[in-house]
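Figure 6 in text form: structure in, sequence out.
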C-alpha cells in the first residue's frame, strides 16, 4: 500500500547505484527490495523477527531459480545491530529511511525514536539524507478511523495494573502537523524539504481487508487485551463504509514525508 510513498522518496533522492541505504523498521522488506532494484546497497533492521524473516526471503528470492540474491544485510533490532555496524564500517550510509518513525521505531515511546534516529545519523555521511514519514491529516486518511479501533480496544494496556510485555506491541498513533519536524529536531537533524503522497489502501474483498490490516501488527495489542474474534468483528464493522458495490474495499489516504540532512 505504501509503494507510492517509497517511489516518491527514492525518485526525489535519486536512489540508485552508489546509494548506501539503511532502512529502520524495515518490516517485510518491500522498501528495501525497491531500493535494491534501483541499484542501491541496502541494510535493514526491524524488531519483529517474523517480518524480518519475510524480508530475508523476499530479498534472497530475487533472481531465482539459481540467480544471485540482491546484496543486502538484515538484522534484528535497531541501529546498534551488528549488521548495521558492519555495513557502516565499510562505508557510511548515504540515505536512512524511517518510514514509520512514530510507530515501528516508537513502540516504547518517542525517546526510542530519537535515540534510533540519532544513532543512525551518526553512521551517515555528512550531508546524507534521513527520511521520516507518517500519516497525513486524519480527515484525509480513511484508514485512520479503522486503526482507531485497535487503539481503543488496547486502552486497558495503559492501566497501572496491566502487565506489559517487553518490548510492548506497536500501537498506531496519528501524526500531528509538526510531529515529524519535532522528532527531527530532537534527533539533531536539519529539515530539507517535505512532500505528501496519496497511498490508497485497496483490497479485493472484506476478508482480505481484515487480514491485511491485522498483518500490520497494529492490532496485536488489542488482540492481547480482548478476544481476537471481537477485534476482527469490530474491524469489519469499521470497514463497512469503505466497501463498494462490487465487494472491494477502498480507503483513500495521504502520507507525509520529511527529508532531513545530517
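Output sequence:
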Amino acid at each position: 500500500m505504501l509503494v507510492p510513498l517509497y517511489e516518491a522518496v527514492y525518485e526525489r533522492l535519486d536512489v540508485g547505484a552508489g546509494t548506501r541505504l539503511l532502512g529502520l523498521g524495515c518490516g517485510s522488506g518491500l522498501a528495501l527490495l525497491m531500493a535494491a532494484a534501483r541499484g542501491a546497497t541496502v541494510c535493514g533492521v526491524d524488531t519483529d523477527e517474523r517480518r524480518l524473516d519475510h524480508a530475508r526471503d523476499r530479498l534472497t528470492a530475487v533472481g531465482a531459480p539459481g540467480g544471485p540474491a540482491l546484496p543486502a544485510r538484515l538484522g534484528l533490532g535497531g541501529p546498534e545491530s551488528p549488521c548495521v555496524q558492519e555495513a557502516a564500517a565499510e562505508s557510511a550510509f548515504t540515505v536512512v529511511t524511517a518510514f514509520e518513525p512514530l510507530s515501528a521505531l516508537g513502540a516504547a515511546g518517542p525517546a526510542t525514536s530519537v535515540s534510533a534516529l540519532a544513532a543512525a545519523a551518526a553512521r551517515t555521511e555528512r550531508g546524507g539524507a534521513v527520511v521520516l514519514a507518517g500519516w497525513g491529516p486524519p480527515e484525509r486518511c480513511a484508514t485512520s478511523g479503522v486503526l482507531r479501533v485497535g487503539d481503543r480496544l488496547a486502552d486497558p494496556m495503559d492501566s497501572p495494573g496491566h502487565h506489559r510485555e517487553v518490548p510492548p506491541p506497536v500501537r498506531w498513533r496519528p501524526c500531528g502537523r509538526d510531529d515529524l519536524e519535532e522528532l527531527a529536531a530532537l534527533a539533531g537533524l536539519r529539515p530539507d524539504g517535505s512532500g505528501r503522497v496519496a497511498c490508497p489502501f485497496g483490497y479485493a474483498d472484506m476478508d482480505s481487508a481484515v487480514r491485511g490490516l491485522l498483518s500490520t501488527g497494529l492490532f496485536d495489542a488489542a488482540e492481547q487485551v480482548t478476544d481476537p474474534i471481537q477485534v476482527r468483528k469490530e474491524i469489519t464493522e469499521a470497514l463497512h463504509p469503505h466497501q463498494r458495490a462490487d465487494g472491494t474495499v477502498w480507503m483513500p489516504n495521504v502520507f507525509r514525508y520529511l527529508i532531513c540532512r545530517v
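Caption detail: The radius of gyration is 18 Å.
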